[in-house]
Every structure is written in C-alpha cells, then in structure tokens.
Amino acid sequence: MPINLNHEAQVEWDKYLEASSIEEQIAHLERFVGVVVKHKGVENHLRMAKQKLKRLKATQEKMRQAKKGSGERWLVPKGEDAQIAIIGTVNAGKSSILNSLSRSDSAAKVGAYPFTTVKPEVGSTSARGARLQLVELPAIVEGSVRGEMSGKLVLAGIRNSDCVILAIDLTHNPVEQLKLILKELSVGKIRLNTEKPSVKIEKVGSGNIQVFNSHHYEGKGNDEITEIMRTKGYMNVIVRFHGPTTVDQFFDALDYTISYLPAIIFATKGDVKGSKLNYSTLMEYISTNKLPLEIIPVSSSNNEGFDSIEETIFNKLNKIRVFTRNNVGDISERPIILDKGSTIENAIEVLSKKMLRFFRFARVWGKSAKFDGEKIGLDRILEDGDVIQVFA
After folding, report:
1. Does residue 136 contact residue 164 with C-beta atoms inside 8 Å?
2. For 305-360, what is each residue's pLDDT tens digit?
3. Among the four residues 243, 304, 338, 339, which has the most C-beta atoms within 10 Å?
4. Where are the domains positioned within the chain?
5. How far are the Cα atoms of 24, 138, 363 from residue 30, in angstroms, in the given order?
C-alpha cells in the first residue's frame, strides 16, 4: 500500500494483512474503505481493496450456502493449487476417471452397481508444475438440487471446486445424462463454461440508481434496469455495462451466489460396442444446442484418451504460472499458481502478506515485461510463465 495513507487507514490495512479468517479480513477492509482519505495517490490501491472485498464476500457467501441445511458434512478442503470435481450420473465411470488420472496409491471403488461412490473420493495429479486435487463426488440424480441422495452436498462440493469434469457414459443414453446434469446444476446456480456478466455494480452513499453504457443492455432500457434494481432492494448504486448483456445475464449479475466454473466432458466407455453411435448423437446434441462444452472420449480399460489430458485440464482452469527469483538469480523450480489477470500484489499475497507492508518495487521477466528485469509496481498484471523478484 502507498506510504501516504492516513493513519486510520494504515492501521486497518495492517490488521487486514494480519487477519487469519475471512470474517476478519472483510471487517478490516470495510473499515479501511470507510476511513481512507481519498486522493489521487491512493486511487489504484483503493480500487484494488474494493475488488478484494468483493471477492472475499463472494467466497463467504459460497461458504454460507455450502453450510446450509443439516446432516453430514463432507466438503473436501482444497489441498493443492486447484481442485477438480469429477461428477456424473450413476455408473458413469467417475471412479475409473479418478483412478486413471490420480497418482494416489488408494484406488477408488469401481463397481457395476449403482451408487458405488457414497462420499467424496480424493486423488491428485500434476500439470505444468501445478498440483491438481481430484475429487470424485457421488452421483447426480433427479432432484439433487432438492437434496435427493445427498444432492445438496454434491452441489456444494461442485461449487467448492475450480473446474468440473462431467463423466458421460457412452453406453447408456448420453444425451439424457447430460440434460439431467445441466438441469440440476442450472437450478443449483452453477454455470459451466459461461463468462460472468459484463456488469459492475458499485454501491455509493447517495445519487440514487445511476446507469452507464446502457446501450449494451439488450432489454428495454434504463427504466427497466432501474426497476429491476429497486425490486432487488438496491437504492444508491452505479451500474456499469462493459459488454452485451441480456436480461437473464443482468439478473445473474445481481446474484452473488452463482458459481461460474470451467468444465469439460469425459465421454467414458468408448471401447464398448455401440458407443461410437452414442458419441455421434451426443456431439450432434451439443452442436445443435450450441452448448459450450468440449468432449474428450476416454476409456479406462485401455487408458485411451488420457495422454496429456492433464494439460487440457490445466488450460481449462484459467490459471497462470509465476516463478520467483532470488537475490543471486536462482529461479524457483515450482511456480506460484494464480488466476488469470492476477497482479504482482496477488502474487506477493501468496508468498507472504507481511511482505506487502514493506514492498518497494518488483522486477519482472517474461511475457508481461517490456524488457527483461523491468521495474514494476503492485498493479502490474502478470502473464503465464513470468518470473518475478520482489524487493522490500
């Protein structure tokens, strides 16, 4: 943070850096935003603080949704750089996918009878230096969103992940399997391979509802936008459209409980007689309905389709690898894994939050650098494969 912060703001920022829980981080960031004296020197950092606050609140809401209801709890804590959920209907081949991808010594149960998996099974693999945690979840069934067969826990497990593998059994009506899965996920507020709406909502102290760039809105204009906002309980806000937005997308933008996840279909049992015709039918259905889903045919019995599959999964994650460099020029063997669009500040938070307090500058080598060793600040956006050195 800049050294020209007023004392009250600096105190709250330091407390945020030292906070260990999401609740504490949110509380101190909210107080920081409230007490900071606004001037040109803090504009960028205030904006980043507000973005952090928004992300933390979204994470908190997802955790709250996952804890709703009663009964057994089996969310798998994230133990690697990214968590991959393996989902599907009964006997779709989820356990076989887990065993084929995983480096774990303990194999998941594979059975020819329904509901072999009754709780999450965990494995791991790696791709491009990133460690991927694999979580096979129990089957999705009709009514999962209402809690059938622990369905709410399954959906919570999906929301907790960073990417989804849909196991579709090519030997048994694959189109109906896909329809069922997509329906339950849609009602459960999970969107696959869908960009977040290009809308930003900012609460302000006064000014009623202000709308900018409404020409991107594909509804009935400003009056409709204002009416929707009031119906949802918004009073003093700024609404900015940054791209084409349908009415449904606008409603989604107002719902912070929706999860947007990358996904890929693993079409299983492709070596069984009749599967090729079902594969063609599935491909045609996806193409006709313009579903944003890629299909990879696999067979665990002969390991077909699993070559370099980890690379495909990593590319779906929208992550980047950032390496660190020490004072003698040595570059770390293992990268930091960050979301695309992450900044130097985000990288330092992974390394050590306390380092931010004493940050002076950083240097960068790689795609984001104008030249090797370029001197940069906290707001520089990093690219995959960049090497950074932090000076504090």
Report:
1. no
2. 787 788 889 999 999 999 999 999 999 999 999 999 999 999 999 888 788 888 99
3. 338
4. 7-67, 82-193+262-316, 199-253, 319-391
5. 10, 39, 31
